[in-house]
Design goal:
The complex is a heterodimer of chains A (242) and B (227). Chain A has 242 residues and is an alpha/beta fold. Helix content of chain A is 48%, strand content 11%. A 5-stranded parallel β-sheet of chain B has the order 2-3-1-4-5, sandwiched between helices. Classes of the chains: A alpha/beta (242), B alpha/beta (227).
């Protein structure tokens, strides 16, 4: 009998306290996350992986940070108003929660492959380098689903900065850690900040099962690497059902 | 209050209709009159966040977790922007509802109690937390008499307790009271009987405040209150 990407139904698996009131009926879909800094090639890879999975007959849903119809606007407003760090962290968490409950979980129940363009790890890394306790962030996101696969596109900051300049003529304020007073020179600030974030990701690797992908390579090479890993994962879960 | 903070934090808690807002406003006026530098803040009032929360409520888009996170965001914005710096500067900060409102409501809505408490663990403990105790029926009558219609989330309609908003509200408030009652000891609430005369309640509040505030605060220069 033909099966979806998902093989047999499984119950939702959360990091910590989870969502106590959520209906614990089965899900059939799969959640795959691609993490990485801006200009790491994330969106390009997600576009290619999506096309490939759809061509193979899977239904795919794309989600990402700051994409909640209700909340994303508020985050921009909060940044314009120079909101504090805890405020921004909580706002991002609300944006993520809205998408988790209203998009991700329903899609997983319906048997979709959900491809997330960043997830809680970016938020936790940003918070940690800004001095927010890891314990607090970990608790905050304990309602998050544990994904099936998490990739982190690791790009050297020196390479990354050139890719940013190919896209824009300037470095983004927050992505350069300019709010942290690291250096008066934006270029230098960017390199220091991205180095800190990458270090935080490596620190999270074991705890959260992150698969670190060398993102310094050309787009097709990275894509082949990602696709191979995703395909073999999907085959393994389909094979397992007997 | 954490050491190193010169100000004092005084908060009021209780269900809608318990009379807490009337009392904290009277306290504010008295302290201002006495020349004490005072700042007043209330639940769900951050300019940056409130609009999103009310949109979510209007459209019925909020789940217990997003409801909780948006109120925490609102709290954090007021806390980081006003409460903490003003406490450091030596102000008396008066808060109409504080973290205990979230502990009670979010838990009743089905969020994990530990999750909610850890989320708010950055907030300073109040120097005085007044809890206004009133029987649910009395608070209910006070609210219902003045309001033609109850709002969806206000009535706890998202909890599917009853199809009748008034009945839902009564059950919802009853559960919140249970949460408050369980916090009295552990959170060191000063319990005020919300059924006695306004003047008598205010007398009790002022007495407690006089015991807590250092005397020199009352000698501070007049007109130093923040807007």
């Amino acid at each position: 009998m033909r099966r979806g990407a998902a093989s047999q139904g499984r119950i939702l698996k959360f990091y910590g306290h989870g969502i106590p009131y959520v209906d614990d009926s089965e899900i059939k879909g799969r959640l795959i996350v691609i993490e990485g800094p801006d200009a790491s090639g994330r969106s390009t890879q997600i576009g290619r992986v999506t096309a490939h999975l759809e061509a193979a007959g899977h239904a795919v849903l794309n989600v990402g940070l700051k994409r909640s119809e209700l909340i994303s606007e508020g985050i921009l407003e909060a940044k314009r108003n120079f909101a504090g760090r805890k405020t921004l962290s909580l706002f991002y968490a609300a944006d993520f929660a809205d998408q988790l409950e209203n998009k991700i979980i329903p899609a997983l129940r319906a048997g979709y492959i959900v491809l997330a363009d960043r997830y809680i790890y970016t938020l936790m890394a940003r918070e940690a380098v800004r001095g927010i306790s890891r314990r607090w962030s970990h608790n905050l996101f304990s309602f998050a689903l544990v994904p099936d696969l998490v990739f982190y596109l690791d790009v050297e900051p020196e390479e990354l900065v050139h890719r940013v300049f190919q896209k824009n003529a300037y470095l983004d304020y927050y992505e350069s850690g300019a709010d942290m007073g690291l250096s008066d020179d934006m270029f230098e600030s960017f390199l220091i900040y991205q180095g800190m974030i990458a270090k935080e990701f490596r620190r999270m690797q074991k705890r959260y099962n992150l698969v670190i992908i060398n993102g310094n390579r050309p787009v097709p090479e990275i894509n082949a690497d990602l696709q191979k890993r995703i395909d073999s994962f999907l085959r393994s879960v389909q094979g397992a059902k007997g | 209050m954490k050491s190193g903070m010169e100000g004092k934090l005084i908060i009021v808690e209780g269900v809608d209709g318990s009379g807490k807002s009337t009392q904290i406003r009277l306290l504010e006026k008295w302290l201002k009159y006495a020349g004490v530098p005072v700042y007043f803040t209330e639940w769900n009032s951050s300019e940056t966040v409130r609009e999103i929360t009310s949109k979510g409520k209007r459209k019925g888009l909020l789940t217990p977790i997003t409801f909780s996170l948006l109120h925490a965001t609102d709290f954090a914005d007021r806390y980081e922007r006003h409460v903490l710096p003003l406490l450091h500067a030596g102000y008396v900060v008066l808060a109409d509802r504080y973290i205990y409102t979230a502990f009670a409501r979010d838990t009743v809505r089905g969020c994990h109690p530990k999750w909610v408490r850890q989320m708010y663990d950055f907030a300073a403990k109040p120097d005085i937390a007044f809890y206004f105790r009133v029987p649910v029926d009395i608070a209910f009558d006070r609210i219902v008499k003045n309001r033609p219609k109850l709002k969806y989330y206000e009535a706890g309609m998202d909890l599917n307790l009853s199809n009748d908003p008034y009945e839902s509200y009564r059950i919802f408030q009853g559960r919140i009271v249970e949460q408050y009652e369980s916090m009295i000891g552990p959170e060191n609430f000063a319990v005020i009987d919300g059924t006695v005369d306004i003047e008598e309640q205010q007398r009790q509040l002022r007495q407690k405040v006089l015991e807590t505030l250092p005397r020199q605060m009352f000698k501070a220069q007049k007109g130093a209150a923040a807007k």
